[in-house]
Amino acid sequence: MRRISVLCAAAGLAVTAFVAASPAEASYHLIRWQDTGFCQIWDESIPTTPWPAGYHRASASVPTFIDALAVKDAALKSGSCTW
Q1: Global pTM value
Q2: What CATH number matches the domain at 24-78, 1.20.120, 1.20.1330, 1.20.1280, 3.90.820?
Q3: CA distance 31 to 66
């Protein structure tokens, strides 16, 4: 009986380690604050919405943070976003 308990505990730890080591699938997009024009990268895996509510979505979703930085850089260069 004790061996089964140890085996179950070891299997549980192995599954936990595998889940923690797998890469997260996150998406990002830009939000633009309406009062200042400031653009911010927003992580879609965050379960809440930005606060206060004076913003709108300024871009499509991109798969990585680096891609979101490129989108933000292009928006800054075109003048659709401010610092």
Answers
A1: 0.65
A2: 3.90.820
A3: 16
Only one residue has tokens 């292009």, namely 74
- pLDDT digit of tens for each residue in the chain (83 aa)? 666 655 445 555 554 544 444 455 689 999 999 999 999 999 999 999 888 889 999 999 999 999 999 999 999 999 999 87
Distance CA 21, CA 9 (A): 18
Dihedral of CA atoms 39, 75, 43, 22 in degrees, nearest 10, equals -150
CA distance 27 to 17: 23
DSSP 66: H
Task: Give the C-alpha separation, 54 to 21, whole Å.
Answer: 37
